[in-house]
Specification:
The protein is of the alpha/beta class and about 90 residues long. It contains 3 helices and 5 strands. It has a 5-stranded mixed β-sheet, with helices on one face. The chain starts with a strand and ends in a 7-residue tail after the last strand.
């Protein structure tokens, strides 16, 4: 079961700025909120909670610092099933 985390520039730069941000379920969060997000996703899965897999979709302009922060928070809560998704040119 996949839960997606998008890291990149918001599409609405006028309201949210140009800096890369973390987005889950159409909500911007900070790295500190990752453990809560993972727990909420695990609760939704009930008995299948060990099947949770996190899919990263990362904009090519995002700095590795924010990506590393998210990866570390995922490690802290033992969310180790992670895959990385590329974006097609038409998705930019």
């Amino acid at each position: 079961v996949l839960s997606q985390i998008y890291i990149g520039r918001p599409s609405d730069v006028k309201n949210f700025g140009k800096e890369a941000r973390i987005q889950v379920n159409d909500v911007f969060i900070t790295p500190e909120a990752i453990p809560k997000f993972v727990e909420e996703e695990r609760v939704k899965l009930a008995e299948k909670r060990n099947l949770l897999e996190i899919q990263f979709k990362i904009d090519k302009e995002a700095k590795m610092g924010i990506v590393t922060d998210v990866q570390q928070k995922l490690r802290d809560v033992s969310a180790r099933k992670i895959n990385y998704s590329g974006m097609k040119i038409s998705e930019r």
